[in-house]
Write a structure and sequence with these properties.
The chain is of the alpha+beta class. The chain is about 25% helix and about 45% strand. Bound molecules: 2-acetamido-2-deoxy-beta-D-glucopyranose (NAG) (4 copies).
Length: about 475
């Protein structure tokens, strides 16, 4: 009976926890090796700040009597971390091991008894120090990746003390007291310092925005949709990667597909953006009304012979000029569904469709409807990355027109083909490209940036392979 409950719980949880992400990120060992260099430096700084308290007291020594001693001004001159390894710790996070670390400590001593007073200095070499730290990685309640210390051990090999000053007899006594004190101070403080460094890392992560603002129409939700996956070879993060209209948080009528990343390890990070990411953008912008656009003559370059006026259109549809001579026109585009993006190897295409309401602008500025065109455009997209943003640029492949309604008599719609091609290429796409050039923010962590990102367009997914750099 119990096994049945267990099995159904397992099945249930694997169902609820496995949502397809819009953005899948894989972090490789190469990133850890880079992180180790940065991390060890940070750790070294923190460990150098360990505090070893003064010690003082009184002892009775045979033949001498009561002696008061004090050891003070103890400081760490150097904390050497020559050997460290870092690796994934399956199911938990990351494991950092430091071996053969050494510390040079110096300080002063003083002893006093009824017949004499002495003082001097000493140097302590601590060797064979090992620290092992497990860094746990989880998804916090806001859906952001979080780190915590998931276990730390520290051990010390050897402690050697060299005194300077004249009073050999007392050295053994002081050495014994010092060794014990140094050992316990170090053991007590090392792990908390390491945890402190991890808390510092957590503070960076805490600034990570789960919701990225894009523009006045849309935001992107980058919360984690699944627990962080940690195997021996990589760490996998499933981000929602979904655009929402700022007006209303509404799910699109399609679902994210599974995202497959290549089994490569030569870059520090692989990001897989599914077509869902961009299609949710199309849906959000469509719902926000951001895909509607008015085209007027003043948007057409000055030198162009084709104008958005009734004499240009009148040349092909005589009624237009006859009814509304010498007037400017307005073309009002409205999307009638969200644009659909398809990602195929080396080929990103977007299919968009809508209606164009065409008007003559009367001398008193009111609009006289002329005709309504149905328009369906296929554009291809180029994608680049700059400053942690995804930047797109569109090029027209094909435009299909249909006449939906006319107030100026019937006409063959293909006579408008070249004017519309012109309008889309010269007015519409440059405007959209201008907006796309602002880019869509990718999830970012303070102080981390991409180095030489490469984009590959695979089936249904855009794969970004990149190294990362930390700069403080
Ligand atoms: C386009 O112009 C019409 C008429 O002036 C107006 O009602 C509409 O809101 C405009 N649309 C956009 C997207 O500016
Ligand atoms: C309309 O365009 C033609 C060029 O095609 C230009 O000569 C004419 O002045 C324009 N008319 C208006 C009202 O802008
Ligand atoms: C790109 O994909 C579209 C449809 O998704 C297809 O019509 C077009 O022929 C493809 N182009 C190339 C160069 O493969
Ligand atoms: C603008 O002029 C047209 C025709 O000249 C007329 O039918 C329309 O009522 C006028 N509109 C306004 C707001 O004056």
């Amino acid at each position: 009976m119990l096994w049945l409950v267990t099995v159904s719980l397992l099945l249930f949880s694997s169902h609820t926890l496995c949502t397809n992400p819009g953005l899948k990120v894989r972090v490789t060992q190469k990133a850890l090796d880079y992180g180790r260099q940065v991390g060890v430096q940070v750790l070294q700084q923190r460990l150098k700040a360990l505090h070893i308290p003064d010690i003082s007291g009184t002892v009775h020594v045979r033949m001498i009597g009561r002696i008061k001693y004090a050891v003070m001004g103890i400081r760490i001159d150097n904390f050497g971390l020559p050997q460290s390894t870092i690796g994934f710790y399956a199911g938990t996070g990351i494991k950092l091991s430091i071996n053969n670390a050494n510390i040079r400590i110096s300080g002063k001593w003083r002893v006093r008894c009824h017949f004499m007073k002495h003082h001097g200095s000493f140097v302590i070499m601590v060797s064979g120090l090992s620290i092992s730290e497990a860094i746990g990685m989880t998804r916090d309640e806001t859906g952001r990746p979080a780190v915590h210390s998931a276990g730390c051990t520290a051990s010390i090999g050897n402690i050697i003390i060299k005194f300077s000053g004249r009073l050999r007899k007392l050295y053994n006594l002081l050495a014994h007291l010092l060794k014990g004190s140094i050992r316990s101070s170090l053991i007590r403080q090392i792990c908390p310092k390491v945890s402190g460094a991890i808390n510092g890392l957590e503070e960076h992560l805490r600034n990570m925005k789960v919701v990225s603002h894009v523009d006045k129409y849309a935001v992107i939700d980058y919360s984690l949709v699944n627990p962080i996956e940690i195997t021996d070879a990589f760490m996998g993060l499933d981000f929602k990667g979904e655009f929402y209209s700022v007006v209303k948080r509404e799910e699109p009528p399609f679902k994210p597909p599974p995202v497959l990343l290549p089994d490569q390890t030569d870059h520090m990070m692989y990001l897989g953006l599914s077509d869902f990411f961009v299609n949710s953008a199309g849906f959000a912008y469509y719902r926000a009304g951001a895909l509607n656009m008015n085209i007027t003559d003043d948007m057409i370059p000055k030198h162009s012979p084709i104008r958005l006026n009734t004499s240009t259109f009148g040349a092909v549809i005589h009624q237009v000029e006859k009814l509304y001579p010498n007037m400017l026109m307005l073309m009002s585009f409205q999307a009638n569904q969200q644009p659909v993006l398809k990602v195929a190897p080396n080929n990103i295409t977007i299919q968009a469709s809508g209606d164009i309401n065409t008007f003559a602008i009367l001398p008193n500025s009111s609009l006289a409807p002329l005709f309504v065109l149905g328009i369906s455009a296929s554009v291809s997209a180029q994608v680049t990355i700059s400053e942690m943003k995804l930047i797109g640029s569109l090029k027209l492949n094909r435009l299909l027109l249909s006449l939906k309604h006319s107030d100026v008599g019937s006409f063959q719609v293909n006579i408008l083909q070249s004017i519309l091609n012109f309008a889309v290429k010269i007015v519409v796409l440059p405007k959209i490209n201008e907006r796309l050039a602002n880019g869509f923010p990718l999830p970012r962590v303070d102080h981390l940036s991409f180095v030489n990102p490469l984009i590959k367009v695979n089936q249904d997914v855009l794969v970004i392979a990149t190294d990362i750099r930390y700069s403080s």
